[in-house]
Amino acid sequence: MHLEDINQQALDNSYFRRVLATGKHVQIVIMNIEQGGEIGSETHNDNDQTLYLLSGQGRVFLDDEESSFNAGDLVVVPAGTKHNFVTEGDKPMKIITTYSPPHHADGLIHKTKAEADLE
Fold first, then answer.
1. Can you name the CATH fold of 12-108?
2. Is there a contact between 45 and 79 (Cβ–Cβ < 8 Å)?
3. HSE on the CB side for 56, CA within 13 Å?
4. What is the rounded radius of gyration, in angstroms, for the C-alpha atoms of the chain?
5. What is the rounded distance in angstroms from the CA atom of residue 29 to the CA atom of residue 97?
6. Residue spans per domain, the chain
7. pTM of the model
8. Which residue from 99, 89, 96, 39 is spatially nearest to 73, judged by alpha carbons?
9. Are 27 and 98 in contact (CB under 8 A)?
């Protein structure tokens, strides 16, 4: 599987979550977290997750630790870690993330966080 210009796809993405590709052991997802928004506090007990911030800025919360999340940063969230990513500033966060093993249905699109919260 070949994903062309994933950076541009992530920058152009206006959906909260969009699954781009799913393999047997990994999944590639792009996210758009609007100004003032967040991913929402969650824990994946069976998945490691890696999040790369392409543009925007925010805060990352991993269990009891908080730190800044700036364009170019990569965060690894081991399975079982409570985490949240919150947007700061006047731009949305554009994120490329991986789940290992896959976490969402292949081809899934959540247009908004509210839509994602229904699952």
1. Jelly Rolls (2.60.120)
2. yes
3. 28
4. 13
5. 5
6. 12-108
7. 0.93
8. 96
9. yes
Q: How far is CA 46 from CA 28, 95, 104, in A?
A: 16, 21, 12
CB-based contact 100:48 (threshold 8 Å): yes
Segment 5-64, tens digit of pLDDT? 999 999 999 999 999 999 999 999 999 999 999 999 999 999 999 999 999 999 999 998
In total, the chain counts a number of residues equal to: 119
3-state SS, residue 47:
coil
Q: Which of 46, 41, 89, 87 is nearest to 62 (CA)?
A: 41
Q: What amino acid is encoded at 65 in this protein?
A: E
Strands (DSSP E) found in 1-119: 17-22, 27-33, 42-43, 48-55, 57-62, 65-70, 74-77, 82-88, 93-100, 109-110
pLDDT at 119 over 80: no
